[in-house]
Amino acid sequence: MSTEGLIEPTGDPSLLRRFLAAVTACRSRLLSTGVDPSRFDLAAMAADVEDLRRELGVSSWNLASHGSLSRLALEVMRENPGHVRAAYLDSPQFPQLDEPGEMVLGTGLVLSELVDACRGDRSCRETYPRLEEQLSAAIEQLSAHPIVAHTPLGGVVVDGGSFLRALQVILAEDPGTDVPAYIVDAAHHHVGVDVTTVLATHGSLCAGYRFGCTSDFSIGVYLSVLCRDEAPFVDSSTLQGSATPLPGLAERYGTSPYLAACSAWKMPSASATIHDPVRSAVPVLMVSGQFDPFSPPRLTREFGDPLENSFVIEIPAESHTPVQGGGCAIRIRDSWIQNPSLPPIGTGCLEGLKLEFVTP
């Protein structure tokens, strides 16, 4: 369904109805074959990990996760900390905050970070002296007067919400050297092929709501975890009180279709303890890219604080899962894992890294 709803505006009710009907049919089909979606939650996955450790005869091991899989790694640490030697979490998420909420909050935080980075770069500052003001203007302009663009996949509506989500995808996949230009263009009611291609490629059921809906993305497992372990504990005040450069960001961004789908997936709520911070003495290295809207460094520091032996590394000028990108981040990780009780060494390779903006 990745190309569904390209021509509908943000929050279009007809698209949501079609999506909920598909989710309902999927659930019914699974139940008819004896598959219970409620058995695929974080607690069950953590138990599977422990079963695997026992079968392998491993007394203790290192855990590694990328992106949302950190929720599982943290649950393993909560339930079986004695068998975890160390863990490194690349672009981590935490049980205290649901993923859809973090998408919105992270987008605002990283756009604010981008504005500050542009202000601190002479060329960017001189080329885009009113970037924060133009960001707000772009969202308001497109919300009032959406643009219908044509792509090889069909028409795409670019309104305030879809433009925000396109920027989020661009920032997640690339640190965003061209984003100031996209913002200024949109403030003048123009969107280029890069923005429309992102929306067309990802589709309105994915762009900005998930890091990617690739062929290996299991929507059923995702909904089971979201609707059982996260959605029952959503705190809307977290978003309303967030410090972002855009008033009303959550409203413009649009409600996650996956969060809305919980009404059709019909999962019983997990115990409230699944939402509690994980408190553990296991050594943990958490790595976040400076411009990662899915796991911004500020949230990594805030929500990772209860991990008493944790270390946070922010990778300048990088975005989502910087360890997977190799280079400096992976050298720091590889060195730390040899002696995880000590702070990471070799971080000097981070010095001097900065985002190089593209300016005319």
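Next protein, fold it too.
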Amino acid sequence: MKICFAASECVPFAKTGGLADVAGALPAVLKNLDHDVRVFLPLYDTIKAGDFDLTPVENLADIPVRLGDHDRAFSLWQGELPGTDTPVYFVDCPHYFHRGRIYTQDSDEDERFILFQNAILIALQHMRWSPDILHCNDWQTGLLPVFLKKTYRWDKLFAETASVLTIHNIGYQGRFSPAAIYKAGLDYQDYYPLGPFEFHGSFCFLKAGMCYADILTTVSETYAREIQTAEFGAGLDGVLRDRAGDLFGVLNGIDTNLWNPAKDTLIPFNYDSDDLSGKAENKKALLSACHLPAEKEAPVLGIIARLADQKGFDLLPPIIDELLQQDIRLVTLGSGDSGYEDMFRAMSARYPGKNFAYIGFNNELAHLITAGADMFLMPSRYEPCGLNQMYSLNYGTVPIVRHTGGLADTVIDYDTDPENGTGFSFHEYNPQALLDAVRRAMALYQHQDRWREVMLRGMHADFSWEKSARKYVSLYRRAKQLLLDRTD
């Protein structure tokens, strides 16, 4: 199949969240499965062309795009996902994308991504490449399914192009003034209360895409069910219930070359499921790096996260004293809300021999925590997919998670299912439920034979991208068939 993959961020070029990891991994795996895949990404000024051997595309320079009552021009650059032969095309428009950051609060944020989406389809026209699938991701590419069915409907190049829209986090919706409809060159006939374009008085890019895409996906099966409810749907649950038959959850994969304890170059001791001795050595190295005393009987609990409400850290203050009075070591790596940053700093000061917090980002420390901790804490309020719990499972670090979204789909609670358990989970979103889950994990840790069994189950689980990519291929075929059925 010919697959055009459109995203606003992609590892290693530009990243703010999990979307970038998907865009940097899934297309390459699809290419390895013998599909013709091309990725499209804005050329932000934070992407240095020389670092990635990017070159201009001949005959694709200074191409105008109409945005309401004015034009903006773009050019196209090309490169490859590093270490692969998967082509990446970069939409270059300095006026919109040379702002020192990926996303802005600027008044023309709508125009930035209207141009990007039009530029993709115009570039495909110039390349005379007719994709079977246009895979869109989040609100920044949410208008592409609309453009296919309306603006570019006349072009036979796209007559058999089906669209798939993946919702990575429904909380980010791309809501703008109704004036953005004019900038996008669309008709106001779809803007009316509860209509495809309208959402609480705004023009919503994500809702528009959800209404017009042939297939909708999100990043875990549980999250696909959750976002059809008022609690998790961020106001769009009704739209998703209407399209429930076209909505599918596909769990994100992980890069098992980058996150593999047997060959991870960022940890001092490699190990695998046949020989776990290196894990114990990494634990010592982690405690040493964090200036914490090493005691074999005391489990190390690791946290690697954006410090925000979504990640469940509001559950910690009521129980933190009781937690750290246990024979335990807590190591945290993250940044985010200043209140949580201050909370973790204060915890380090109060419990200097039991708690260490690194406020910021440190990739080497992230790998060392994943390898050296005994347990990994991820008590998210909601979690569309989550990657860190899969990394920890792969490294034999037992996760303690809230039963939501991708966490529910990847971690099997030991006490609920002792024969298959890979970690510990709790359902109720309250501090006591979290504390109880930690206590259950600590109780099992005292029985190292059973603990080892739980570790090994996690290490043997398959979270590879190939498994997820094959599910996407089946959904691409479904989308294509739906399109053909409608046009017959």
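About the second fold: The first helix runs from residue 18 to 32.
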